[in-house]
Design a protein that fits this description.
alpha/beta, TIM Barrel, two-stranded antiparallel ribbon, 14 strands
Length: 453
């Protein structure tokens, strides 16, 4: 069994050598247990297969892989994994209907630094590199951002975490008939104010906390939810001009406050294996990269039904990715002239009330992530980004892995007490977390900078 290079790098040093094999040899026959914290003496770095145990198969796999990579000299560049992190939990009472998944540690408040400390330990163990902090202006949610300052930013182990932003544009901006019209003064004014406020928030995180800001191309990363709603359809010249002008002004406003403009990631990936619509193509060129909030985004509100992350579902997702790579390859950012980066989403299941449920199990989820990772490397990174890898523009391949703590939609990665998208629980609520660790390894970047390679 040949492990990926970054999984073979058991100690996370950025090099593969006999020290990695020694760690698993020392940990042989250790078991994690299924409490929130590992059993005393368990070294989670050695659990390279995500099974909560270190057995002779693990020792053999690591030793074999160390020998292979020592000969080839292949660098263990660990992928960057990004999970959405929310600060809007203000009460402990979250009844069914507001939870489709519940944290194994019980309900929590986002203002609690002890909970955030536990979250950070778990993220590092199971391989979440970056926290994309959901950002909402005060007029839409008065507590979300202040909760970060009371909870997330006061965790004593915050220095192990990288952070970026997830701008909730459909909550923040005036929204009518399912669209956001950037020709209106209200939208333009609100957008500019939000970018200034986000710059202040992120500058405070950078300057007054131990968190490290996640950057690409030297700029702080900002994901934007719902950009596919920007502009009335059909997207005529007046809409395109308004979008370009408003975003350009907002980039300058952000840079005035923060010192650098953000690296913008728009939600413009295809939802099906069909045509890459003209409006999506035009909007994509306003960003540095594109993503999708969840690959089940085409699971629309309607009658309750249960879908499965089946081979047919996975084949469809691969087709969508492949079509997206082909359609995006000729596009360039209107602001930088650079190629657009595609960031795939390998979120687990989906169980939002009033929508069809996407069910997973631990094995299918791991297989799905492995396949998407391979397709992404072969279809996008190798042909278009090899020359940029290990540099500021792309220190490693990037993936979004769903939500860490959004309990409403069923794709939480934290260890769960129940999760309606995982009907066949195999690992005591660690099913999604263990699968993630199997594919991506523990978070090496907790103890070294992302841009170190």
């Amino acid at each position: 069994m040949l492990l990926p290079p970054y999984v073979t790098d058991v100690d996370g040093s950025g090099e593969i050598n006999t020290l990695d094999a020694e760690i698993v040899n020392t940990a042989l026959h250790a078991y994690r247990g299924f409490g929130l914290s590992p059993r005393a003496g368990f070294d989670y770095r050695a659990d390279v297969l995500g099974r909560a145990a270190v057995d002779p198969l693990v020792v053999d796999a690591v030793s074999h892989s160390v020998r292979q990579y020592a000969e080839s000299g292949e660098p263990p560049r660990r992928p960057i994994t990004i999970a959405w992190h929310y600060g809007w939990y203000n009460t402990l009472d979250r009844p069914p209907g507001t939870q489709t998944v519940r944290f194994k540690g019980g309900n929590y408040r986002s203002s609690d630094p002890q909970v955030e400390t536990t979250f950070n330990e778990l993220k590092n163990e199971f391989g979440v590199t970056v926290d994309a902090l959901s950002w909402i202006p005060r007029h839409a949610n008065n507590n979300n951002n202040s909760n970060y300052h009371r909870g997330y930013l006061r965790a004593p182990n915050l220095g192990t975490r990288h952070a970026c932003l997830l701008y909730e544009s459909t909550l923040a901006l005036p929204f009518a008939l399912g669209r956001i019209d950037f020709r209106t003064t209200d939208v333009q004014t609100r957008f500019d104010l939000d970018f200034r406020e986000m710059a202040r928030f992120l500058a405070r995180v950078r300057d007054d906390s131990a968190a490290r800001i996640f950057t690409l191309d030297g700029r702080p990363v900002m994901f934007i939810f719902g950009t596919h709603t920007w502009g009335r359809l059909p997207l005529g010249p007046s809409h395109i001009d308004a979008l370009h002008r408003t975003i350009g002004n907002a980039l300058d406003a952000f840079a005035d406050v923060y010192g650098e403009p953000p690296f913008l990631v728009g939600e413009e990936m295809q939802l099906s294996a069909g045509y890459f619509a003209d409006d999506r193509r035009v909007r994509s060129m306003l960003f540095d990269a594109i993503f999708i909030y969840h690959h089940a985004g085409n699971v629309k509100r309607g009658r309750e039904q249960r879908l499965r992350m089946s081979p047919a579902y996975i084949r469809n997702q691969v087709a969508i990715l492949s079509n997206t790579y082909a359609d995006v390859s000729p596009l360039r950012s209107r602001f930088t002239g650079r190629r657009l980066l595609v960031i795939p989403n390998v979120a687990p299941g989906f169980a939002k009330p009033g929508h069809p449920t996407l069910e997973i199990d631990r094995g299918d989820y791991a297989d799905f992530m492995k396949l998407v990772k391979r397709v992404h490397m072969e279809g996008h990174i190798t042909p278009h980004w090899t020359g940029e890898l290990a540099r500021g523009a792309l220190p490693a391949p990037v993936y979004t892995v769903g939500s860490w703590n959004e309990e409403f939609e069923g794709h939480c990665l934290f260890p769960f007490e129940f999760n309606l998208s995982v009907p066949d629980v195999q690992q005591h609520g660690f099913d999604a977390a263990m699968a993630l660790k199997e594919v991506f390894g523990w978070n090496h970047y907790a103890f070294r900078d992302i841009h170190e390679g």
